[in-house]
Amino acid sequence: MPTVSPYAATSHRQDEFSGAYIRAVCAAAGCSLSVPSIDHDKIDYSVKSRVIGLVRTKPQIDIQAKCQMSGLASSDPISYPLDLETYDNLRDPLVSIPRILVLVLVPPNVNEWLSQSHRELVMSHCAYWLSLKGAAESSNTTTQTVHLPKNNVFNPAALQVMMSNTSNGLDLS
User: Fold this and answer.
1) How far is it, in rounded angstroms, from Cα 85 to Cα 165?
2) To the nearest 10°, the Cα dihedral for 104, 107, 109, 113?
3) Diameter over CA atoms, the chain
4) At residue 4, does pLDDT exceed 70?
5) pLDDT value at position 7?
6) CB neighbourhood size of 161 (10 A)
7) Are the C-beta atoms of residues 25 and 123 closer than 8 Å to each other?
8) Which of 114, 121, 152, 169 could form a disulfide with 55 if both were Cys (CB 3.0 to 4.6 A apart)?
9) Is 105 helix (H, G, I), strand (E, B) or coil?
10) What radius of gyration do the chain's Cα atoms show?
11) What whole-number distance in Å separates Cα of residue 128 and Cα of residue 134?
12) Of 101, 83, 74, 81, which is closest to residue 146 (Cα–Cα)?
């Protein structure tokens, strides 16, 4: 009789870990995070802020989260194959709420994703973001490779800039 692991499948762990990473960044940036009840539009999280800008107040950004077990980013930009439906949803230039892709890179070994001591909790490795608004239509049939610059680190400072830009009527790209 085969043994069944009492723990979640690796893909479920990736989903939860990327969500925890995004939630931690939002908390540190002073933003709230919610999860849409239905993911019918390729949006995993909605981030809101209390920023008052020149054009809008209380901006929102929608996030599609992905997690890749590749270790540290070794190239710049980081290439990631995105399914075509998600690519098309993220590139839509007419949506009223800006959308970004957040790619969390983790070590290949699940046991190395997190370390903890009395002093700190460390999540390995890093997350990067990309706005695909207005990107070209793909001629591919299943996936489109996107390229995330290594300087687009998804961190509290970057999220606060995105919220300010959104409230001032500026694009995120």
Assistant:
1) 27
2) -60
3) 65
4) no
5) 78
6) 13
7) no
8) 169
9) strand
10) 17
11) 19
12) 81
Domain ranges of the chain: 10-76+104-129+150-167
Burial 126-141 (b: 16+ CB within 10 A, else e): bbbbbbbbebeebeee
Mean pLDDT of the chain: 94
Q: Tokens for 137? A: 């239509």
Cα 106–Cα 99–Cα 172 angle in degrees, nearest 5: 95
Token digits of residue 48: 């809101």
Rounded CA gap, 150 and 79, in Å?
10
Q: Is the pLDDT of residue 2 over 70?
A: no
Residue 39: pLDDT over 80? no
Q: In degrees rounded to 5, what are phi and psi of residue 5?
A: -65, 135
User: Which residue is associated with the tokens 């919610």?
Assistant: 34
Buried b (16+ CB within 10 A) or exposed e, 35-51: eeeeeeebbbbbbbbeb
| CA 135 and chain centroid, separation | 17
